[in-house]
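Technical annex, item 7. During the second reporting period the consortium partners agreed on a shared format for inverse folding records so that results from different sites could be compared directly. Each record opens with the tokenized structure and is followed by the designed sequence. A conforming record, contributed by the partner at site C, is shown below for reference.
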């Protein structure tokens, strides 16, 4: 068996640990499919918990489940013992343990070299544990004054231990996401809410949406396998890179980032297929006549939305969507004081939490600080664009194209830090293009404080920007 694994890994150009992870990861699809046929609520929770723990063991070894047990135990204990502050306690304890694992394992170096460990799964699990505790904390608050997301996700009573473990480990979703809410997991398991057969007739078939996600995963893996030999990260430290001109270096940064993204597209497409086929991916019906089922609860990326993003402001809506939603609900919105509008502080704090969640490499920290600058600069261009009257359509379109070009340029520049991780390589790559992706957002932010257009009447869709 070991020899077969070695030969299989060599055939597709990955290490044996990565191949083992990929096999277990793909196995979440049939595991999720068979969940549908488990009778009764308690057996479903047991199945979710047992299969999740088994796949973790096969993928990462026995120690992985011990690591997962720590934040899960801390979160449940805080809910059980001190409900009024269980959310904030779990937040700091969960992140504290995750940071400790990041420091101990320094997984980023292994991931760059094709290695794998349980830290990535622990990252997803930490968010689920924290959100559960915060929602249980919110169950003490009166509905008046709560945001819609708080009203929807709050937990009035403490989930049982088996419900909690099943939520944390079900469908192998702790491998790579998506993050979802305890309230949705319970409704799905119990056949309530949108999963109730009495709501709008028979439950919709998930097979078409699952097939689409699988075809997308196959295409994304093919793209990654084709591109990665042509645009390796090692090129940034090779002498030939330094011999290139400015535009060729900038172009290579774009292609290196584009290549890396196809790997994430593949992983998230497999996750999407797994959650959809279980039924948990169902997110309601469209308003069309006749209504059609929506399957975007598990959607973590909009590929075309990322590659042709019109504004950096829209990136959280199309990239790592479920984690972006988590950060908005549990960090960004909760830092905004009543009666006040969010500003750059909330944005920077949210991006900092995201950076720490990914790991303590300088490249991560720099990337997410860069992201805050990038989004702030994009908002300036957007405000200018919206202030242009409809009669000046050409100017409006020019500013729109300017925002698109700005977003692509600064994103390509910024994501190099996310990929190479080390401070030396990050600063060397940024310096090779004269720090254009840092200087440009700062200039725009400063100009935005000088050139302040009037605020035109805006539609609801525009206000969301």
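Designed sequence (site C submission):
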């Amino acid at each position: 068996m070991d020899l077969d694994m070695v030969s299989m890994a060599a055939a597709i150009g990955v290490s044996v640990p990565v191949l083992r992870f990929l096999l277990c990861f793909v196995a979440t699809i049939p595991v999720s499919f068979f969940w549908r046929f488990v009778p009764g609520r308690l057996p479903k929770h047991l199945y979710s918990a047992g299969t999740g723990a088994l796949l973790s063991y096969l993928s990462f070894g026995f120690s992985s489940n011990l690591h997962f047990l720590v934040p899960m135990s801390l979160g449940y204990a805080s809910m059980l013992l001190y409900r009024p502050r269980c959310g904030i306690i779990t937040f700091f304890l969960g992140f504290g343990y995750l940071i400790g694992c990041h420091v101990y394992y320094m997984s980023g170096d292994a991931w760059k070299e094709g290695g794998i460990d349980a830290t990535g799964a622990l990252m997803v699990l930490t968010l689920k544990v924290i959100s559960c505790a915060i929602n249980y904390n919110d169950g003490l608050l009166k509905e008046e004054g709560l945001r819609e997301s708080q009203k929807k996700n709050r937990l009035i009573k403490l989930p049982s231990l088996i419900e909690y473990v099943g939520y944390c480990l079900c469908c192998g979703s702790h491998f790579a996401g998506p993050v979802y809410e305890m309230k949705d997991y319970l409704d799905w398991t119990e056949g309530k809410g949108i999963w109730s057969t009495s709501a709008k007739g028979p439950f919709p078939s998930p097979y078409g949406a699952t097939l689409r996600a699988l075809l997308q995963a196959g295409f994304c893996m093919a793209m990654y396998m084709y591109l990665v030999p042509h645009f390796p990260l090692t090129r940034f430290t090779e002498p030939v890179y330094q011999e290139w001109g400015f535009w060729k270096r900038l172009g290579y940064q774009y292609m290196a980032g584009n290549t890396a993204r196809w790997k994430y597209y593949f992983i998230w497409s497999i996750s999407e297929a797994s959650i959809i086929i279980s039924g948990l991916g169902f997110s309601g019906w469209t308003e069309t006549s006749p209504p059609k089922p929506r399957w975007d609860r598990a959607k973590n990326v909009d590929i075309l939305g990322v590659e042709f993003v019109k504004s950096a402001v829209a990136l959280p809506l199309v990239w790592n969507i479920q984690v972006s939603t988590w950060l908005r609900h549990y960090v960004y919105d909760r830092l905004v004081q009543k009666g006040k509008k969010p500003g750059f502080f909330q944005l920077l704090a949210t991006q900092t939490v995201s950076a720490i969640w990914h790991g303590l490499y300088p490249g991560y920290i720099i990337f997410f600080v860069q992201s805050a600058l990038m989004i702030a600069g994009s908002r300036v261009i957007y405000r200018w664009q919206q202030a242009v009257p409809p009669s000046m359509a050409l100017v409006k379109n020019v500013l729109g194209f300017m925002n698109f070009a700005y977003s692509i340029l600064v994103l390509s520049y910024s994501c190099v830090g996310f990929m190479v991780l080390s401070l030396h390589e990050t600063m060397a790559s940024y310096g090779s293009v004269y720090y254009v992706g840092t200087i440009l957002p700062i200039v725009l932010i400063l100009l935005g404080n000088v050139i302040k257009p009037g605020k035109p009447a805006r539609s609801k869709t525009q206000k969301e920007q």
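The CA atoms of residues 337 and 346 lie 10 Å apart. The mean pLDDT is 89. All partners now use this format for quarterly exchanges.
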